[in-house]
Amino acid sequence: MLTIYRWREENRNGEWLELDQIHQVTSADLKSDDIWWIDLTAPTPEEEALIFKQLLPVHTLTLEDITKPKREPAAMPHFPKVEEFPDYLFVIVNPLIEMNADVLASGHFQRAPYRQLSAILTKTILITHHYESLPSIDGLAQYLDRHGHQAERGPDYLFHLVLDSMVDEYAPTLDQITDRLDNVEEEVFGQPTRTLLSLMLELKRLIIGLRKTLILEREVLFRLTRGEFRLIDEREVVYYRNVYDHLVRYAELIEAAREMVTDLMQTHLAASSNRLNEIMKALTMISTVVLPMTLVAGIYGMNFEALPEIKWRYGYPFALGLMLLTGIGSFLLFRWRKWI
Fold it and tell me: Residue 91's beta-bridge partner residues?
């Protein structure tokens, strides 16, 4: 779906273009002083060709990166990056997929817990491209409905709003991951199981994936905040710096979560080993208690007529009593040594 918002500098008014108006837009219109936001949500090949080949031609490599999720649906989304071209700035970020507590508890996570959002910025145009609906994009549309005059600040300001909303989406998911790890910690000390170990492995894989994209997005935001790109106005840098600060904090949280899940896995292995040791200890003590009984039974079970007690009237009770006495003696020895 192709949607276009236009801020008319001449009469200082913003509007959403109707379908027939969209197809009347020309490259000459985009070169005016008006501010344009062009959003492509799950676009058709014809819509992509209209924007990226006719109205605002982009480099072939840029188009390949933009359309990667469609060309390679089984592959991971493109990692965050920022590239400056002579007439536009190209940015890729990875908005997070919302995950609730039930998904985290199940341990069945998607291979990539994020999606790809591609953006192209010029002096007067912001183009956003994504194949699935994104809350950050919907939020910008709602913001312009209420504060349309803010569009005159330029594409760099509008893109900052998208990034700010996208980064804030990390907070609830990171909180839920932390809460889930706290619950896992209690389970590890209570009852370590193979299912719990599988859950921790899935959580670790999820956290590592989030950590990788957060680190790369942090690098992208860092470059956007240091005045490296001419299309990011100096007055907007402070807003990008605010988003960068939030992202740094979330990156630290995900790093702490990674260390926590690693420690929990080690604790689980130690708890499992300790539990195995307890089992082996119990079995060893049982064997030790039974061993003297077996010895007595083996001696008096030999088929030799010369055994002194072979024809003794009290031989059988004596053997049973001797076995019982050795068993009780071994048990009392373990108790005295505080082995049990």
Answer: 82, 119
**Complete domains list, the chain, with CATH:** 2-272 (3.30.460.20), 275-336 (1.20.58.340)
Q: Which residues contact 291 (CB under 8 A, 6 or more apart)?
A: 330
Q: What is the pLDDT of residues 69-105, one digit of tens each?
A: 888 888 888 899 999 999 999 999 999 887 665 656 5
Angle between helices 234-300 and 194-225 (to 10 degrees): 160
Q: Kindly report whether the global pTM for this prediction surpasses the value 0.85.
A: no
Q: Nearest 5°: phi and psi at 120? A: -125, 130
Cα first-last separation, the chain? 72
- In the sheet that 81-84 helps form, which strands lie side by side, from edge to edge? 13-16, 2-8, 35-41, 125-130, 117-121, 89-93, 81-84
Q: Single out the residue of 326, 323, 181 nearest to residue 256, CA to CA.
A: 181
